Every structure is written in structure tokens, then in C-alpha cells.
Amino acid sequence: MVVSTKEDFARRLHKACDNASPPLTQGRGRRAELVRRVSAVGMLVSGEAVRKWLSGESIPAMDSVRHIAKALGVDTDWLLTGRCVEAGIKRPGIVAKEPDAPIYELLPQSILDVVEIMRDLDQSYQSKVLFAAQLAKHEQSQERSRNSSARVG
């Protein structure tokens, strides 16, 4: 069974909470402590938003992921995708690739490159990068359709 992306993120978030220094307690206290730690690094977040992240109901915006990673001492890329460069791991015990999270291995390298670029961009440019990626994908699709039509005709 393939685990959804939201569930993958929630699992990594719980793992980061477990490996944080000091670790975040399990249960209700975890949500309150995560709100406190994320607020301490400069981002206000609601308890309801954190509840949704921890339960796998939603994935935070990219800017939020950066703050969460900073608050927990983990690599932003690992928290978002499950992959990371060995040198980028900030906390020991966080594995670069989890065996049951292969969904990102199925994505084309171009999409993974976009995720990596977005990690470094300000939030205001993220929508432009996504639009450009979608436009490029659409143009590739149209080109393939034209090539298929030319071969048939």
C-alpha cells in the first residue's frame, strides 16, 4: 500500500519531534510544544494547524516547513520529501530515506529539482516557479501530442 504524501509528512514530523533536543512529548503536549517552538523561531502558528500536520490532514506551506525544520533541528528537504544530502542532516537519527516512503522516487527529476529550488526561494516567488513548471509540463504534453499526430497522419 502506498502511503499518501500527507501521511508521509506527518510521520516525518513525528519522527523529528521524537528526535528533537529535547524530544517533544507524545500526545496533546506535543502539539502545544510544537506551537511554542515554531513561534520561538519567528512564525506564529495555530494549534489547529499543527494538529492537522501531525494527523496527516494537511501539509504546511513551504515557508512554514522551513520554520518547523529550524525549530526541530532537521533538514527542510528531509522534512518535506524524505530525501536529503548526508551533509544536510542536522540531527543524527533522522534517516535520509525511509524505506516505506518511496513516493518521491517515482517523481521525475525535474519536479524534484523544482522542490529543491522552491526550498531556497521566498514565498512570493513560489507560485511563479510552480506556474512555470506547470506551463513547461503542458508544453511538453502538447509537443508529444503533435508528434503523435504527425506520426499517425
Characteristic terms for this protein:
mainly alpha, 7 helices
Structure report:
The protein is mainly α and 153 residues long. Helix content is 63%, strand content 0%. The chain is built from seven helices and no strands. The radius of gyration is 18 Å and the shape is elongated. It has a domain at 5-99: Orthogonal Bundle (434 Repressor (Amino-terminal Domain)), CATH 1.10.260.40.
Order of helices and strands: HHHHHHH
Oligomer designation = single chain
Separation of termini? 42 Å
Strand tally: 0
Mean model confidence by pLDDT: 75
Largest sheet: none
CATH superfamily of the domain at 5-99, by name, is: lambda repressor-like DNA-binding domains
What is the class of the domain at 5-99 in the CATH system? Mainly Alpha
Helix content: 55-70%
Low-confidence blocks of residues: 86-104
User: What best-fitting shape do the alpha-carbon axes yield?
Assistant: elongated
Strand content: under 5%
**Gyration radius from CA atoms, angstroms:** 18 Å
How many helices? The count is: 7
Q: Assign the CATH topology of the domain at 5-99.
A: 434 Repressor (Amino-terminal Domain)
Structural class: mainly alpha
What is the annotated CATH architecture of the domain at 5-99?
Answer: Orthogonal Bundle
